[in-house]
From TrEMBL:
Gene3D superfamilies: q2cbj1_9rhob like domain (2.60.120.620). The keyword Cell membrane does not apply. The keyword Transferase does not apply. It comes from the Bacteria. Pfam families: PhyH. This is Phytanoyl-CoA dioxygenase family protein. Keywords: Dioxygenase, Oxidoreductase. The lineage of its organism: Bacteria, Bacillati, Bacillota, Bacilli, Bacillales. GO terms for molecular function: dioxygenase activity. InterPro entries: Phytyl_CoA_dOase-like.
Length: 287
């Protein structure tokens, strides 16, 4: 336990994050912590299965299939375009996402890095990276390319896989120490229909790439200038993950991306948003 800094990280972990631009917290979350967010994902998969069934694209909703397989099997005989109609990543307002974004273990870790006045950025994604769909790959980029004009440095991404992530199913890969780089000139990826922001190979520099395989429930924290990517999923299971983002409350709330929420405040705990505020798109608690 560190005695000087609030939050849950040790001085060594904070130093590592500041030096390398990222930090891995293996198995931060338990199955119990992840149950509500998995429930939200299952809800969404059921909605998609109903739609595919109504459209006559499938004859079986595969309700009994296990979490890592159901979505992959629903699209097994369909095309990448059929899948992309439902979005390459999802940002639904389902209670399970709020539960995860408010998880004290995540907030304690982030507090160690940027203090205890924490705003949950509107940009959070559920990523159902399904097998062999080229669009599952995410090209090299800096998250800041999605909010180049925002006065929001630092935004911290917290990337959490719901299944074990490895190099076969397309875990996150990162270039350490690139967080001190300026924002690089990006272009929009054109091949796969995802519209991801992307960098050219010539912009990546000489820094080694570090693949970050991690067990389910681990968290990878990284700075929004740190270069990262992920490869396609070559397994037969869905690589389920979420990426959440936090910033200090005095930074740009980025309303153009949606409504974030006050996740933690030592100064004004009475203002921290509750589930009903978040569902209503309110950034703070309203009595
Ligand atoms: O989940 C992935 O594969 C990529 C995640 C990512 O690029 C991000 O969280 O910014």
């Amino acid at each position: 336990m560190n005695m000087n800094i609030s939050g849950s990280l040790t001085k060594e972990q904070i130093d590592f994050y500041n030096e390398e631009g990222y930090l891995v917290l293996p198995r931060l979350l338990t199955d119990q912590d992840m149950a509500p967010v998995k429930e939200a994902m299952n809800q969404k998969v059921s909605m998609i299965a109903d739609e595919l069934y109504r459209e006559g694209l499938i004859t079986d909703r595969l309700e009994e299939r296990p979490f890592p397989l159901r979505l992959a099997e629903l699209f097994q005989n369909l095309t990448a375009e059929d899948f992309l109609k439902h979005g390459r990543s999802w940002r639904d307002r389902l209670p399970g996402y709020f539960d995860l974004m408010s998880n004290p273990k995540i907030l304690d870790a982030v507090e160690s890095l940027i203090g205890g006045e924490l705003f949950s950025n509107p940009v959070y994604n559920t990523r159902p990276k399904i097998p062999k769909v080229a669009a599952g790959a995410v090209p090299w980029h800096q998250d800041k390319s999605y909010w180049p004009d925002a006065n929001s440095n630092p935004v911290i991404t917290v990337w959490i896989p719901l299944v074990d992530a490895n190099e076969v199913n397309g875990c996150l890969q990162i270039k350490p120490r690139t967080h001190r780089k300026r924002l690089l000139k990006w272009h929009q990826e054109q091949q796969t229909g995802t519209g991801y922001t992307s960098l050219k190979n010539s912009q990546l520099g000489k820094t080694d790439t570090v693949p970050l395989p991690v067990p389910a429930g681990s968290a990878i924290l990284f700075n929004d200038r740190c270069l990262h990517m992920s490869t396609p999923n070559l397994s037969n299971e869905v690589r389920w993950s979420v990426d959440l983002r936090y910033q200090p409350t005095d930074q740009d709330p980025m309303l153009a991306h949606g409504v974030g929420f006050l996740a933690r405040s030592h100064r004004h705990p009475e203002r921290v948003a509750r589930l009903e505020d978040w569902l209503a798109g309110r950034a703070e608690r309203v009595e």
